[in-house]
């Protein structure tokens, strides 16, 4: 999530209007992550009129879900999360809750798959005001699916409090170097980034060759404030 936010600063289409996606106009994805083979990730056209979703306000007595920081996650939490992803990966690929379909959703809305309505421009949920609403609903349902697979309605995702000095590296449960759970980490990630003592480069996407920690932290602050683009932008 964080890397996506940071990446979004670097090729912002300033003030571009974004029209709704035309889900009947499905194209090949553009700009899939490094090393990923191109594939068609369009969702099946629904046989029903999509319903407007509104979160239900909590009532007294409801279970409160607490989102903890990733760095403070304990072994119990990490093993539950790993089990949830393992269950998600065991679902048949065509199941809308499956890991494959969860990945397809990000591909479809974030890799320029759909055309915009009445336009040949592609729809992309990054680089505009849509970034936060899209990822909020995506993560909302993703979290609910994980909770449902675990049979634990109180289950929640953690968040990366990357601006705390103790939390500037990849959270341990997602680090291939530290996590005992292959379902939570990827061996594809550059080992120098995954390293437990590496300061994550929040200005990801610009020239982020290895920097001394104090300089990287200062660049991270710039990126968090949205100034990263102005300092390092390539436009
Ligand atoms: C697309 O264009 C048609 C014809 O001009 C118009 O009726 C329709 O409202 C437009 N749809 C969108 C989503 O802009
Ligand atoms: C949506 O895409 C389909 C298929 O390309 C096309 O026929 C239709 O005119 C498009 N609708 C709009 C509103 O752009
Ligand atoms: C940050 O790390 C220091 C040194 O290990 C520790 O004393 C402190 O409690 C940590 N703070 C947080 C908020 O994790
Ligand atoms: C991380 O850095 C600390 C302090 O320099 C060091 O003690 C520790 O061994 C390092 N951990 C790894 C896995 O490199």
UniProtKB/TrEMBL annotation:
Residues 126-143 form the Tyrosinase copper-binding domain. Keywords: Copper, Metal-binding, Signal. It comes from the Eukaryota. GO terms for molecular function: metal ion binding; oxidoreductase activity. Residues 1-15 form the signal peptide. InterPro entries: Di-copper_centre_dom_sf, Tyrosinase/Hemocyanin, Tyrosinase_Cu-bd. Gene3D superfamilies: Di-copper center containing domain from catechol oxidase (1.10.1280.10). This is Tyrosinase copper-binding domain-containing protein.
């Amino acid at each position: 999530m964080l890397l996506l936010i940071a990446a979004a600063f670097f090729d912002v289409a300033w003030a571009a209007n974004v029209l709704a996606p035309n889900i009947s106009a499905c194209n090949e994805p553009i700009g899939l992550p490094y090393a990923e083979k191109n594939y068609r990730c369009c969702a099946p056209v629904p046989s029903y009129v999509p319903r407007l979703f509104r979160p239900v306000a909590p009532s007294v007595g409801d279970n409160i879900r607490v989102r903890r920081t990733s760095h403070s996650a304990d072994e119990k939490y990490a093993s539950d999360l790993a089990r949830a992803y393992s269950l998600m990966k065991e679902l048949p690929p065509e199941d809308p809750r499956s890991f494959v379909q969860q990945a397809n959703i990000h591909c479809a809305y974030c890799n320029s798959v759909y055309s915009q309505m009445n336009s040949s421009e592609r729809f992309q949920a990054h680089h505009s005001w849509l970034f936060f609403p899209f990822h909020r609903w995506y993560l909302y349902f993703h979290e609910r699916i994980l909770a449902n697979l675990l049979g634990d309605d109180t289950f929640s995702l953690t968040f990366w409090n990357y601006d705390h000095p103790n939390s500037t590296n990849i959270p341990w449960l997602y680090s291939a170097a530290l996590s005992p759970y292959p379902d939570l980490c990827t061996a594809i990630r550059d080992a120098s980034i995954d390293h437990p003592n590496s300061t994550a480069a929040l200005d990801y996407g610009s020239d982020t060759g290895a920097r001394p920690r104090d300089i990287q932290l200062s660049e991270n602050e710039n990126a968090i404030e949205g100034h990263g683009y102005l300092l390092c932008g390539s436009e």
